[in-house]
Design goal:
Elements: H1 3-7, H2 27-44, H3 52-60, H4 63-73, H5 77-83, H6 88-102, H7 109-125, H8 127-131, H9 145-152, E1 157-162, H10 168-181, E2 190-194, H11 197-210, E3 217-219, H12 220-231, E4 237-239, H13 241-253, H14 260-273, H15 283-291, H16 298-301, E5 307-310, E6 317-320, H17 328-339, E7 343-346, E8 354-356, E9 359-360, E10 365-369, E11 372-382, H18 392-411, E12 416-422, H19 429-439, H20 449-458, H21 463-481, H22 487-495, H23 499-521, E13 524-526, H24 527-539, H25 545-548, E14 552-555, H26 563-576, E15 579-584, H27 599-602, H28 604-608, E16 612-616, H29 624-634, E17 655-660, H30 676-697, E18 704-710, H31 714-719, E19 725-728, E20 733-736, E21 743-749, E22 760-763, H32 796-806, E23 813-818, H33 824-831, E24 839-842, E25 864-869, E26 874-879, E27 889-890, E28 901-902, E29 910-914, E30 923-926, E31 941-942, H34 944-950, E32 955-958, H35 969-976, E33 1004-1010, E34 1013-1019, H36 1029-1046, H37 1050-1053, H38 1056-1065, H39 1070-1074, H40 1081-1101
Parallel strand pairs: 1-15, 1-16, 2-3, 2-14, 4-13, 11-12, 14-15, 17-23, 17-24, 18-21, 18-22, 22-23
Antiparallel strand pairs: 5-6, 7-10, 8-9, 8-32, 10-11, 19-20, 25-26, 26-27, 28-29, 29-30, 30-31, 33-34
Helix pairs in contact: 7-9, 9-10, 10-11, 12-24, 13-21, 13-23, 14-20, 14-23, 24-26, 29-32, 36-38
Length: 1118
């Protein structure tokens, strides 16, 4: 069928000839007819037409549309047609067709129609072949039509978007087999790439092992290494992250002292910019920030801060070594003063006895130099009186307090320097402070940088160096993962005005160059450079096409692609003219922290210039009810690719939320050992019991396989604070003490669970806290330069991670959450019932709970921190708000809004919270109170009602206790004269009832002999054997027979420790075998099937009772 009749449905004119070689037509028209003929021939072929198949045709005839356009513009087209007796419709149709074909970003309708017909024809004609294409992998696998379309399609760049459990690996295996057997592609010309060894091993099992197709299957790192080795005479040693940490840590501790300029920058960074300031506007987030931040000074961290005070309660001398301030800006001022050798004291008593809200007035700082004395007040608002975190009422209160303090110092003729958080002219407050100090005649004698830096390095408090090294390593690793080079440091700086970020970039650049220098000197390369340099070698054509020769590059888990990996496969494809098939699921993109960039997936066709997107929407793992819940959950973020997954499976109550008590009642004597971890373990046990009961109900026999998923690795250890679970430190495995051999538990983090499935899943850490799910850990802002941060939705990546956790199960997923601090995700699942039907709640849950700070100021709601106050000689809870707004302090939070105040009856007493008599509400009482009959102490007390009438929020009143009796006078005199009271020996603690504190229950080993073989069998914390002794006997017997058959020593096959692991953990897949110590790919290939057969047979015949406590009676074996 000719082109024009097929596409446009019209008949050729009688005078139109198909002989393109005829001289009767002008050359241009003959070229049009030839173009039509070639395209017709292409469309007549029984194959999928990719855009590269007609690209040469488009390029070859590129001049024709321009020629016709010229005729149109000059109004000569009609004359040209009539003069030469041409068909105008043929010309117009050519122009339209060419325009469609030349737009490489879209598929022309004629090509699309052809490919659709081809796909449907071959789905029908090759049905039997496609039905059996994966029979060797699993006779039960039957590809659906969407998978078959992926197998048959052959576009240059194809993105396959598949849901969880939709058979991505299955589809890749089928695609490879079809290319080899039906398209005649040499297996060596098909490169399959994935990101982890785990994923690679699964692909190898399907393709290399089951299908016997020997195509290369590798990680990106292995590909990079292979390319590097092609181009180099000697191999480089590949180093991991520990090498970088060692190099940079050594450099910052030793070598850097030779670079005085960098040392100055490091000290400036440590002194003023070490902690990233909070720059948002959300008050709740700000509260979280200040509640977990310790505002300590350099002086304190290099152990030069020593303050001796008399404890007001014990009357003993205490030495304070930790100087903690209220804000980072105050820390910056303290560090500035220290580094310029100006003696300062933080929050001293004012030299005149003036009250501030009924307690002594304490300016932020007092500084002294020779005869000069100056007070410093730093105000946390801008010079023009703004702060996004304060209400208009608070701002007015703040400004009034500032004015009152200025007037107070003028009245008493004391020198005051005051600074603001930000100045109208953009001057930094430290610059302003410096100018004020110089104007007053203060000498700023900069401490020698080397001396200060050496103190930082040598101090036991190593938080500066270690934290900075970790941050730099993280930055450099992601910097290279994005394919950046040294010049990008300058590019970043040219776009950024933030002082802290620019300073960090200077420090990081030097460390980067030092690290790269060491790599060269040691003839090493890291994984990031290996991939970047491989792509660069290909781009510069230093690798011959013949050395690689790939025709297809298939990338699994493409949603995790980073810029450098994208560059590598694009350069490989360009060099080899290879087609790219990328398979993945944007809903499961969870590795931004290690460099993945989701838009490389979601904008696939745009990145490659063109391509096709295919979807696989039928899932074989999850029930439809669970898919609906998980799909609705992840698609709350409209930036995710929208898709509707389908399943033939159905299940009742797919998501079950199990709650546990998360408040430890200190009043109860029978609080279980382990506290809240006891209740956590009990909730997990309830879920396990429900799974076992359901299995029995459905007639499922044998061991129940359950995957425990945590947000972090330490969630496994936390669970094992419960008596019912034991943790094996060596294998990172959890064992159930209660259910024994009836269950097989596995633990994985949500990240490491991706790509896996389990019969049942229990998510064990769905709580609202820093290390909960979602995690509330915030990256340092500088990492945003090199890490793709998804701001498209609140907790966007954590939401995808939760989706991954939800969809690992083949049956139900149980989610363990605390009653009072449930995860935000849990509350969403339960509150929005229409969106998430079939979610069941077991237990009580406080859905109204909000993220709370543990210790909150009762006056202003800001967080409080507890510390020894040098002025009062007391451990106090101190509000972290600026004192201009709230200066609340208390010794006991049970007093509510009762704050510590200056006693007005005695000179040196303070009114603190004390319990009321006979269980009444707390009162305020003087610290100098004595219970003796003669009443020798100060007996000032007041109830809350009296207190509320008595307090005065103003500043500037004179202390009414001046001239009154001083109870601690003798101790103060001794302290001032240097005659310190004798330090008392610590009292022996009274014998108390055993505290039921959490204790991780770990496995132990006991030596056990079978004939002459000694085995360290694994036992729980109480001595019960966890190793399946019957299975151990069977595997040992198999080893004996195999060694005899191969005429080798038995331990060459597997050593005794490996046998114990096999009999304890009972792996059921080749992948699980690879997780056993002592078993690699080679041994799995040699013995894997036999071992799995033994374990599988034993699991279906062995009784599933709890572990037997053998005690001292060991079973006898022949």
């Amino acid at each position: 069928m000719r082109l024009l009749s097929r596409i446009f449905g019209f008949k050729q004119r009688d005078n139109e000839h198909d002989d393109t070689s005829s001289g009767s037509y002008p050359e241009e028209y003959r070229q049009i007819l030839k173009f039509n003929s070639i395209l017709d021939s292409l469309l007549d072929e029984d194959r999928f037409i990719a855009r590269s198949d007609y690209k040469q045709l488009v390029d070859e005839y590129a001049s024709l549309p321009a020629f016709i356009e010229t005729l149109k513009k000059s109004q000569m087209l009609k004359t040209y047609v009539e003069t030469n007796n041409l068909d105008l419709i043929t010309i117009h149709k050519f122009v339209d067709t060419y325009k469609q074909l030349s737009n490489i970003a879209t598929v022309p309708e004629v090509i699309k129609r052809h490919n659709d017909i081809f796909i449907q024809k071959h789905i029908k004609d090759e049905k039997r072949y496609l039905d059996d294409i994966l029979k060797e992998c699993d006779p039960n696998i039957l590809l659906d039509d969407e998978q078959r379309e992926v197998v048959l399609s052959n576009e240059d760049y194809t993105l396959v978007i598949a849901g969880a459990g939709a058979g991505k690996t299955t589809t890749v295996a089928a695609k490879v087999r079809y290319l080899v057997e039906k398209q005649g592609v040499n297996p060596e010309q098909i490169l399959v790439i994935s990101f982890t060894n785990k994923a690679v091993n699964e692909l190898k099992e399907r393709i290399n092992h089951n299908l016997k197709i020997n195509c290369p299957i590798s990680t990106f790192h292995s590909i990079g290494n292979s390319i590097m080795n092609i181009n180099e005479d000697g191999k480089k040693r590949i180093v991991e992250g520990g090498y970088m940490f060692t190099i940079i840590n050594r450099y910052l501790k030793e070598t850097v002292l030779r670079d005085s300029e960098l040392v100055d920058k490091l000290i400036l960074f440590f002194g003023s910019y070490f902690t990233a300031p909070y720059e948002g506007k959300d008050l709740a987030e700000y509260f979280q920030f200040i509640s977990r931040t310790e505002f300590s000074t350099i002086k304190s961290n290099v152990q030069e801060y020593i303050q001796q005070v008399i404890d007001h309660k014990t009357k003993e001398v205490k030495t304070l070594n930790n100087e903690i301030l209220r804000s980072q800006e105050e820390v910056n001022i303290a560090n500035f003063l220290y580094l310029n050798q100006i003696d300062y004291e933080y929050e001293p008593f004012y030299q005149y006895q003036i009250l501030d809200s009924n307690k002594p007035y304490t300016p932020d700082f007092v500084i002294r130099q020779r005869e000069k004395v100056t007070y410093i007040e730093h105000f946390g608002i801008t010079q023009n009186g703004t702060n996004n975190l304060y209400s208009p009422e608070d701002i007015e209160k703040y400004k009034k307090r500032i004015n009152d303090k200025i007037l107070l110092h003028r009245k008493h003729k004391t020198d005051l320097i005051y600074t603001f958080s930000k100045y109208n002219d953009g001057t930094d407050y430290l610059v302003h402070l410096k100018e004020e100090l110089i104007a007053r005649g203060y000498e700023l004698n900069k401490r020698p940088s080397e001396e200060v830096y050496q103190k930082i390095v040598n101090s036991e408090e190593t938080k500066y160096i270690v934290r900075l090294v970790n941050l730099i390593c993280n930055f450099i690793s992601n910097f290279k993962t994005q394919g950046y080079k040294e010049e990008h440091f300058d590019i970043f700086k040219s776009k950024i005005q933030n002082v802290r970020t620019r300073l960090f970039l200077d420090i990081c650049r030097t460390c980067y160059l030092e690290y790269q220098k060491c790599l060269i000197q040691d003839n090493c390369t890291d994984f990031e450079d290996m991939i970047n340099e491989s792509a660069e070698l290909i781009r510069k054509k230093k690798i011959a096409k013949e050395r690689l020769g790939y025709k297809y590059i298939i990338v699994d888990e493409y949603q995790d692609i980073s810029r450098q990996r994208y560059n590598l496969i694009k350069e490989l494809s360009s060099l080899c003219d290879a087609k790219i098939v990328a398979v993945g699921d944007d809903w499961q993109s969870i590795y931004a922290f290690s460099g993945s960039i989701l838009p490389l997936f979601t904008h696939f066709c745009k990145e490659f210039g063109y391509g096709q997107e295919l979807k696989i929407t039928r899932t074989y793992r999850n029930a439809q009810e669970l898919i609906n819940i998980a799909g609705s959950f992840v698609q709350r973020n409209s930036e995710q690719i929208q898709k509707s997954l389908i399943s033939n499976k159905s299940i009742e109550n797919p998501v079950i939320i199990q709650t546990y008590c998360d408040k430890k009642d200190k009043k109860k004597e029978d609080t279980p050992k382990g506290g809240i971890y006891y209740y956590l373990g009990d909730a997990v046990n309830s879920s396990i019991q429900a799974i076992l009961e359901q299995n029995e109900k459905e007639g499922k026999r044998g061991v129940a396989s359950i995957l425990l998923i945590g947000r972090y690795g330490f969630d496994a250890r936390n669970l094992c604070n419960s008596d019912d679970f034991n943790y094996d430190e060596r294998s990172k495995t959890i064992y159930s003490a209660k259910f024994g051999k009836r269950v097989k538990l596995s633990f994985l983090t949500a990240h490491s669970s991706k790509g896996l499935s389990a019969d049942n899943v229990i998510i064990i850490n769905a709580k609202d806290e820093m290390f909960g799910f979602p995690s509330q850990i915030e990256d340092d802002p500088v990492l945003r330069l090199v890490v793709n941060h998804d701001d498209s939705y609140n907790y966007a990546e954590e939401r995808r991670l939760f989706y991954v956790a939800l969809t690992r199960t083949k049956n139900r997923v149980f989610i363990i959450t605390p009653e009072n601090r449930p995860s935000e995700f849990i509350k969403e699942l339960l509150i929005e019932k229409k969106l998430y039907p079939n979610v069941v709640l077991n237990g009580n849950l406080n859905l109204e709970s909000k993220r709370k700070i543990k210790n909150v100021c009762p006056i202003c709601g800001y967080p409080m921190q507890r510390r020894m106050n040098k002025n009062y000689g007391l451990e106090l809870w101190m509000c972290m708000n600026d004192q201009e707004i709230c200066g609340f302090m208390t010794n006991d939070t049970r007093g509510g809004d009762l704050a510590i105040k200056k006693c007005d009856w005695c000179k040196d007493g303070y009114l603190i919270v004390k319990p009321g008599s006979n269980g009444k509400e707390p009162i305020l009482g003087c610290t100098n109170y004595k219970s003796d009959k003669d009443k020798t102490g100060c007996n000032r007390m007041m109830s809350r009602d009296y207190y509320l009438k008595w307090i005065d929020d103003s500043i500037g009143n004179e202390d009414p206790s001046v001239g009154k009796f001083e109870y601690l006078r003798s101790e103060k005199i001794a302290l001032e004269e240097g005659h310190l009271p004798k330090m008392t020996e610590p009292k022996k603690p009274a014998i108390r009832k055993e505290r039921k504190t959490p204790n991780i229950h770990t496995t132990t080993t006991q030596v056990f002999h079978i004939e002459k073989d000694g085995f360290d069998v694994i036992c729980d914390a109480t001595g019960n054997i966890l190793t399946d002794m019957e299975l151990l006997k069977k595997i040992r017997q198999w080893r004996y027979e195999k060694a005899k058959e191969k005429n080798m020593r038995a331990y060459w096959i597997f050593n005794n420790a490996t046998l114990v692991d096999l009999a304890t953990r009972m792996p059921i897949t080749r992948e699980e075998l690879l997780s056993i110590s002592g078993i690699g790919e080679k041994k799995v290939e040699m013995y894997g099937d036999e071992i799995l057969q033994i374990i599988n047979k034993h699991s279906h015949t062995a009784p599933t009772t709890n572990s037997h406590n053998w005690g001292s009676e060991w079973p006898e074996f022949e």
